Amino acid sequence: METSEIAALIEAGGIETVRIGTPDLEGVFRGKRVSARHFLDGCDGSGFAQCGVIFGWDIAEEVVGGRGLAVGSADDGFRDVLLRPDLATFRVVPWDPGSAAVVCDVDDEDGAPVAVSPRSVLRRVIERARRLGFEAKMAVELEFRIFREDQESLRAKDYGDLRPLNPGLNCYSISHASIDDDVVGGLRRQLDAYGIEVEGYNREHGEGMYEMNLRYADALEAADRGMLFKSAAKELLARAGAVPTFMAKYSDQLDGCSGHIHQSLWRDGRSAFRDAAASYGIGATMSAYIAGALDALPELLALFAPNVNSYKRYVSGSWAPTAPTWGIDNRTAALRAITAGEQAIRLEHRVPGADVNPYLGFAACLAGGLSGVERNLAPPPAVVGNVYAAGALPPLPRTLDAAIELLDRSAIARDWLGDAFIDHYVAMRRREVEKHRTAVSDWERRRYFEQV
Ligand code: ADP
Questions:
Q1: Which residues neighbour 171 within 8 Å (Cβ) at sequence distance 6 or greater?
Q2: What is the rounded CA–CA span in Å between residue 284 and residue 277?
Q3: Atom number, ligand 1, closest to the C-alpha of residue 140
Q4: Does residue 156 share a domain with residue 96?
Q5: Same domain? 54 vs 154
Q6: Which of 155, 369, 106 lies closest to 261, judged by CA?
Q7: Are 235 and 284 in a shared domain?
């Protein structure tokens, strides 16, 4: 869209405020609100100054610092980066009269893309896919738990003993979902009006648990939708007196929350995955893509499972994968090939949790898969039946610590996502591991307090 078209939308919609922002390393939508007039001024190419610390702090907004970070630390004087609105993402915020939102790319003050910005990382991978002749279409499918709490009650209760939106464990039914539909259906309707189509949603097993499937789109747009979805869900549920969590594993007594990624490659408007003459319609490109995704899975895991907590979701028999495997419509495998026809043939990556940063998760999916296409790899045989019962398969790294060391040494990650990004990400995750290593948990108090 041109600035003049945006100006017309602003005028027609009575827009006074524009939310401008970009994903940080965790996938959180960070930025600010600017007046509509100031926004239009910044669309002339000058962009909007934003302190680079959004790329230099951790999930708790603590500055990481002192680890040679190229952006967002005292070493660079916390200097600005420039937010450049991607006008194709401009949308009215239907629940906030007079407001619109736009997702931005991030440049440095000399106009070059900031290499550690997740949106830059994904763009770089998408452009390389294009050079190979492919357009990528993707979707993220998010599970999350909803509680009848607010910012104050969460803190007063120290995040324990929370009241779920609905109490039952075994409530995967239309009638149970109907009971919550004022809240969850309301969320869906607002998201739809915000340009984030929810194809379907359902109550999941476990208290307060829901899943929403976002409609697939071109990879960059689908990642924007994933980020905006989480941000909007937090905002909209607060209006209904509720709070969602996208933690991969909120409780060791309950299932984790997944963030499965669906993906397909296209060429000239047709699926590049499908070959009607091949077994299950899985053509040579899809085979090589599966092989690459499996081959690179251990070294890319830290991008699918970014937090210490993410690894607690990978429990044998839990619907979350524990080994690099693939299967035809097999939900016990890490990669589920869905071979349903010309449009819908795709791969579902079942490793990411709901805490995945969609930009980085998508970039990692494409890097792994396309590196297989470039190398013309052949996948191992598809697993049949229950993968968890299949015995000795090579396990995935079991901790963030182990996954980070593999990522640091990954030639594929460095080639596809860039050294500057990998160095930055690894430094930040090492800090996360260190924070956790010295934290004393409730579990430790319960286990050792009286006994040792
Ligand atoms: P579930 O795992 O919940 O059963 P489905 O197998 O029904 O999910 O997959 C639905 C998801 O797949 C939706 O997000 C949908 O938009 C996405 N999807 C459908 N076709 C494609 C495609 N060709 N490429 C990528 N994603 C797709």
A1: 177, 203, 205
A2: 11
A3: 14
A4: no
A5: no
A6: 369
A7: yes
205 and 338 fall within a common domain: yes
Instruction: Tell me, yes or no, whether 364 lies in a domain.
Output: yes
List residues bridging with 92 in a β-sheet. Answer: 100
- Report yes or no on 138 lying in a domain: yes
Give the span between the Cα atoms of 437 and 307, in whole angstroms: 13
Residues 253 and 355 in one domain: yes
| 178 found inside a domain | yes
Residues 300 and 257 in one domain: yes
* pLDDT of 306 higher than 70: yes
CB atoms within 10 A of CB 77: 8
Residue nearest to atom 12 of ligand 1 (CA): 262
What atom in ligand 1 is closest to the CA of residue 273? 23
Residues with CB under 6 A from ligand 1: 137-139, 141, 199, 213-216, 260, 262-264, 338, 343-344, 346, 348
Domains in the chain, number: 2
Q: What is the rounded CA–CA span in Å between residue 154 and residue 231?
A: 18
Residues 105 and 135 in one domain: no
Domain hosting residue 100, numbered range: 3-114
Give the nearest ligand 1 atom to 138 CA: 25
Phi-psi group of 439: left, alpha or beta (phi > 0 → left; psi -120 to 50 → alpha; rest → beta): beta
Q: What is the pTM of this model?
A: 0.97
What are 221-277's pLDDT values in tens digits? 999 999 999 999 999 999 999 999 999 999 999 999 999 999 999 999 999 999 999
Listed residue (214, 213, 226) closest to 363, CA to CA: 226
Tokens standing for residue 30: 């960070």
| Ligand 1 midpoint to CA 150 (Å) | 32
